[in-house]
Amino acid sequence: MAGAHRRLGGPGYALVERARDTIARHGMIARGDVVLAALSGGPDSTALVDVLARLEGSLGLAVHIAHVDHGLAGDSAEVASRLASAAAESGFEVHVVRAPDLAGPNLHARAREFRYGFFHTVAGQIGAARIATGHTLDDRAETTLARLVHGADTGGIAGIPPVDGARIRPLIEARRAETRAYCIESGLSFVDDPANDDPRFERAAIRNEIVPAITERFGAGAVASIARSAERLGEDAAALDGIADRLWPGLASEADSVAGGDEPAAIVRLPLDELRKLPRALRRRMLEHAVGRVRDRAGGIEAVLEALEGEAKPGARFDVADGIEITLTREGIVVARRMPA
């Protein structure tokens, strides 16, 4: 691993320039920021750490490193020790943790939740304004494809954004092949994450089966095209979200009624006539805003939208996740939370 404050020029400088342009374009880092870089040991994160080290002086940032040993590979502890030692010898402050036993369903999701929880905890402790991960353009395209399979909304299909709160992706406009080539050209050692070929993970199937089929049929530029479409979808989703945010105060009334008997406690009321004037995409966002951030597996919101486009029957009730119920009245829509029995 390269030492901190490496010079800008030299091997792999094209990737450094690309990352610097991406950082500037998306306003990822402010001068003086402490940045916590997530290092798995793979070529993407190894390149990320080295690129940020080369940009420390020109961008006025300070880089710390975080590594999570998920314990999913037999040599994971050895890899973690080697990475921590190399990073410390290169002059970085290093933060390492061993994850608890993650065996069971939804392994990938639980590993990700633990990983980011650790990153945010460390960031808070060291005063890091940003958490940098080595996601590439390929990751963005793969995420878009994976979410398409599951019927995600516009924002979900947009995949991985360049900036998401404190999280930044300086390599999001670079290809995965570029990060590997960068490491080889710069003489950086890396390890290939066995999870990338683990059939337990959906992402491995997308990466190793679906993307190669698309590339073979449509050419090497297909992945970049998917990522470009994802970026535009993200822009559209953000615009619609902004419109919905501006409309919300004029349409919604925060209900303060208290449940009585078997009746649920009202949360929000929305006027029916005004809601029907909106395009379906904005109606959906108003309802999503009302119910909060829940995964509506029951399809309650979609059922309400269908009812609004037909003849909505007063008194009709629709179940949403987390004990939320949507009721149609003659005047509008009432979003309420069912009281526990």
Q: Which architecture of the largest domain does the CATH hierarchy give at level 2?
A: 3-Layer(aba) Sandwich
Shape: elongated
Terminus-to-terminus distance: 58 Å
Helix content: 40-55%
Beta content comes to 5-15%
> Low-confidence spans: pLDDT under 50, at least 5 residues?
none
- By DSSP (H or I, 4+ residues per run), the number of helices equals 12
Let me know the CATH homologous superfamily of the largest domain. HUPs
**How many strands, what sense, and barrel or not for the largest sheet?**
6 strands, mixed
CATH topology of the largest domain: Rossmann fold
Overall pLDDT metric: 87
Instruction: State the secondary-structure class.
Output: alpha/beta
> Which CATH first-tier class of the largest domain would you pick?
Alpha Beta
Could you tell me the number of beta strands? 11
Describe the strand arrangement of the main beta sheet, using strand numbers: 3-2-1-4-6-5
Number of domains: 2
Rg, Cα atoms, Å: 24 Å
Provide the succession of SSEs. HEHEHEHEHHEEHHHEEHHHEEE
